[in-house]
Design a protein that fits this description.
The protein has two domains: about 45-170, no CATH class; about 180-275 and about 310-360, no CATH class. It is built from nine helices and 23 strands. The chain has helices at about 1-25, 45, 85-95, 105-110, 165-170, 220-230, 245-250, 330-335, 340-345; strands at about 50-55, 60-65, 70-75, 80, 100-105, 120, 130-135, 145-150, 155, 185-190, 195-200, 210, 215-220, 235-240, 255-260, 265-270, 275-280, 285-290, 300-305, 310, 315-320, 335-340, 355-360. A hairpin with a 5-residue loop joins strand 10 and strand 11.
């Protein structure tokens, strides 16, 4: 009996020893996530993107693709979006790699500063198809810590993307879709009522002017400079169409007319409220005292010379209208007032003489 009890005891101890060993042995390293070493955003998902949402520090911007393939900044007056900027942003996500798995430990995750810095991609139905939340930049090395769709895992990626949440900066600032080589005629107005009209028979043909001054020839370089300036106009900001500065500028617009070889007419109006000098209101009954008369008469005062103050010129605005009723610019002009940089206005020709030069002797 003693022998039997001893055998049973040894067997129980052996089982307990094996259990203790299994319990205390080091845990196997986690299996590598299949996304490690691959693109942060795969090409298949990128091809299905029809919506983009970027949030950071309490701000956000949202964009959506229309049925015709064009993009709009839905969070900024539904204005046309800069497709090149969107393409570069998505390309950055596609080219960035998931370098390595970092942690799934809740305590460590809390130290990686995952807050509201997020990129969300949606399909044509508005459904989320991909998203990441960005954490802090590692103390050594480059990139950002990222989490996919709120997963309790953190990865390190070599992503270098700026989370731009300014809706205006995602908008396409171009206001003229016509290319310089497509323009056949240009009409330039001046305050005196004069007008310079130039035209050419073909895209690479020479410019000629209507009623050029005797003994002078057209300065083609000045014509091409103006054409480049008009066809490359971009807005710097937008305001409510009822903004007082926009209404004032509309009173001083100069309209430049471009006619393309296809017959489309584009009217481009630029203007701003000019600088103004105003008479300062007198302060009380102040008068300038003169020396007393020699005969002892009571000195008389004379009014102080009037003083003027200068009111600076207002901001420059542009309005564009196309003869093509389907041109998007016509609807765009109804939504907002468009400011341009001052040089876009101050660089315009001020006199008809600027377009002509002494004819060269043959």
């Amino acid at each position: 009996m003693k022998l039997r009890n001893l055998v049973i005891t040894v067997a129980v101890l052996a089982v307990l020893s094996v259990a203790a060993y299994l319990r205390n042995q080091p845990k196997a390293a986690p299996v590598d996530d299949p996304r490690v070493g691959k693109s942060l955003l795969d090409s298949d998902t990128a091809s299905r993107v029809s919506g983009l949402l970027v949030t950071d520090q309490g701000k956000k911007v949202e964009l959506a693709r229309s049925a015709d393939g064009s993009w709009r900044v839905t969070s900024y007056y539904d204005m046309p979006a800069d497709f090149d900027k969107i393409a570069r942003f998505v390309q950055d996500l596609n080219e960035a790699k998931v370098d390595r798995f970092v942690t799934a430990n809740p305590e460590r995750l809390s130290r990686l500063e995952f807050k509201d810095s997020q990129i969300v991609l949606k399909d044509s139905g508005g459904k989320e198809i991909w998203s990441i939340t960005l954490g802090k930049t590692p103390e050594t090395g480059n990139g950002r810590f990222v989490r996919f769709a709120g997963e309790p895992k953190a990865f390190l990626s070599g992503l270098h993307a700026w989370l731009d949440t300014d809706g205006k900066s995602w908008a396409d600032t171009r206001l003229v879709a016509v290319k310089p080589e497509d323009v056949a005629k240009i009409a330039v107005p001046f305050e005196s009522g004069a007008k310079v009209e130039v035209s050419r028979a073909k895209k690479d043909g020479p410019w000629s002017a209507v009623n050029a001054p005797a003994g002078q020839s057209l300065n083609a370089e000045r014509v091409n400079s103006l054409l480049t300036a008009l066809t490359s106009l971009r807005f710097s900001d937008t305001l409510d169409s009822k903004d007082e500065s926009a209404i004032e500028a509309a009173k001083f617009m100069r309209m430049f007319r471009l006619t393309t070889f296809s017959g489309t007419v584009l009217d481009i109006s630029l203007g701003r409220k000019p600088e103004e000098k105003r008479l300062k209101a007198p302060v009380g009954d102040a008068k300038e005292v003169v020396a007393p008369a020699k005969d002892g008469a009571k000195p008389e005062g004379t009014p102080i010379a009037p003083e003027f103050e200068t009111i600076p010129a207002g901001p420059a605005f542009v309005a564009v209208a196309s003869s093509d009723s389907k041109a998007p610019i016509n609807d765009l002009m109804k939504s907002r007032a468009f400011k341009v940089d001052d040089y876009a206005f101050t660089g315009l020709p001020q006199k008809a003489d600027e377009f002509f030069e002494a004819a060269k002797a043959k």
